[in-house]
Amino acid sequence: MRAGVAAVVLLAINSAATAQESAPRPSPTPCEYLRGDLSRQLPRMEALRINIALLSAAQQGCIPAMEDLLAAGAALRFHDRLGNSVLGAASRAGRTDVIAFLLAKGVDVNENNVFGVNALFQAVQADKAAAAEALLAAGADANVANRGGITPLIAASFNGDVRLAGLLIGKGAKVDALDRTGKGALVYAAGRGNAKLVQLLLDAGADPNAAYDAGLTALMWAAGHDKDVADADGANAVSVLVGRGARLDAQDERGRTALMIAAERGHKDIVELLLKAGADRSLRDRQGKTAADLAANGTVKDALAGG
């Protein structure tokens, strides 16, 4: 009887062992794969390759591999031929854990690449809000600008990130900064029909009547919003600006008003909204054309001909 029980137990053990051996092993994670690859190559890698590998490991979020590379002589402050830093690589990839790791090791949160921008700018441009928040909390400069004059707030506004724009403003980002094309954060928010962002920027002190490049105002940009913006979103942005005192009949360098621009773009809802708010349909641009003359279609012409 006991021999029979022992045989059954032994059979169960053997079966379990066989099943364990035959079960597929989990695939290595990208970080494990990277470390395995490094373990084979690291003894033969020259200094430049070790440092380049550090940037790659930071971008992939593999802190153990970074530790291996640092132990092999990699430099935390290494920059590639374009001046990109290890912190910048981690920030563009949104690797908050790597950011914390690097800052804990004394990396300067405001070190710039050859384009004059810090890791915060790179995180914002890549739309990595969590990384940007971590860098701001560590003291990153919210007003750094690239060679095109684009600041983190302008980049966040172009990306339509209301929360991140709010964080930047809270850290002192200037709402009236202009890029090299003469446009500011409010213009990009308005042109992309982001009413919440327009409201945020106005609340932070942006001037609803500032004239930007070619004399265009934020209201004009909203009235002639991008093609990929929903008509309702464009109308909402216009409504916010009108409600905050944007001048309805301001004219750009061509003599065009927001009403003329909306008419030419075929934005019927915005045309009706501006007319209801009191926009003057009789004004003419420098070529003598009215909004009706510029209307893109019959529907807009009918709206302009109405009461």
How does this structure look, described?
Helix 15 packs antiparallel against helix 16 (268-277). The termini are far apart. With 307 residues, this protein is mainly alpha-helical. The protein contains 18 helices and no strands. The protein has two domains: 30-141, Serine Threonine Protein Phosphatase 5, Tetratricopeptide repeat (Alpha Horseshoe), CATH 1.25.40; 150-307, Alpha Horseshoe (Serine Threonine Protein Phosphatase 5, Tetratricopeptide repeat), CATH 1.25.40.
Write the topology of this structure.
Layout: H1 2-22, H2 30-41, H3 47-60, H4 63-71, H5 86-92, H6 96-104, H7 119-125, H8 129-137, H9 152-159, H10 162-170, H11 185-191, H12 195-203, H13 218-223, H14 231-243, H15 258-265, H16 268-277, H17 291-294, H18 298-305
Q: Which key terms come to mind for this protein?
A:
single chain, 307 residues, mainly alpha, Serine Threonine Protein Phosphatase 5, Tetratricopeptide repeat, 2 domains
